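Reopening this one. Same input as before:
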Amino acid sequence: MTKKILLVICDGLGDRPVPELGGKTPLQAARTPNIDGFAAKSMHGLLYTIAPGITPGSDTSHLSLLGYDPGGIYTGRGPFEAAGIGISMNPGDVAFRCNFATVDGRRIVVDRRAGRIGEPETGRLSSLLPSAVIDGANVTFRESTEHRCVVVIRGKGLGSNVTDTDPGVTGKEILKARGLDDSSARTAEILNQFTDMAIKTFSGSEVNRDRVSRGLPAANAILARGGGIFPHVENFLKKHGMTFGAVAAEGLIIGICRVLGGEVVTPPGATANMNTDLLSKGRAAVELLGRKDFVLIHVKPTDIAGHDGNSGGKVDIIQRVDEMIGEIMSSFKEELVFAITGDHSTPVTAKEHTCDPVPLLIYSRHLRGDGIAHFDEISAGRGSLSSMRGLELMTLLKGYADRNEKYGA
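Same output, byte for byte:
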């Protein structure tokens, strides 16, 4: 009999030993009684979401974990961000994922996230420059979740082979986008002109005058990266033979799931910030599991805490995830294949994505357990699943849910 599948992806979950946690990782330090309650009856392993030695992005890693080879379909993060906030794209449109940022008078980047600005201020800024026409192309600009925003360029003869304007660090000037082929050169020049327009428009805005008066960094620029053309992706139901639902609040993940044909729910109180209501997400997941074969829950704050070097915050979020999982497992009475993992590691000591593998736990009543008492990076390495790649996860979950066809006679 086939079983339903619940996959919880904690963004940036993997970590390294943290001095202020006594040399433990946040997962090791966290109190997780609900996960520990069935950990010994679960299978554990380490997961390279792309491949050993490769540092994954959240976009490519989620595609891989959902069974899609990013090498065959990924053109850039921008199109998924656009889909996540409801911008429809046509063939040939180019989208960029951007940050609201703070620059000084010389265009030197002071804060790549403008103090982690968010709604409603990002919406007010976006309304000042919702669209423009540059060199015959239409440019659409809209805020996304947190400090993020999206630029979509529509027109003939555009290319997406464009370098980023985001220098990736503070203390450096906004980069000029460069096109690496003829059609992309035109796209790059349009992006550069729009970047100039954004700086001019935002710098004198009431939003930023108010922020500066309160001692907050001005959101007076945008930094673009991840340009891409909307890809053709096989529908999840057709590919995996399962109906698909997701509980998510971050624009990128919403976009990926929508592109794959999933039903995405963002319940009340669910955000892509540290203040997200995880119990609300859990209740939404239980409802979705009543109607869908496969449900994904995305948890963003573990990644935010990693990027901020906030070890205590990461421990707290993990403990709240444990509480959410306890609510789900006590509420959903059907037999279930449950898995929890990360899309990549964001160690609090590094404050960036790293190539470290992420821990993986898979539980179902009928599985052989490893006898491991606590879910964390070190213990998972001793599990029966050993080391896997992200693309293998969906096949494994479907196998344990009795959803794979027999191979051979």
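So the earlier flakiness isn't reproducible anymore. For the record, Residues 182-203 form the longest helix (22 residues).
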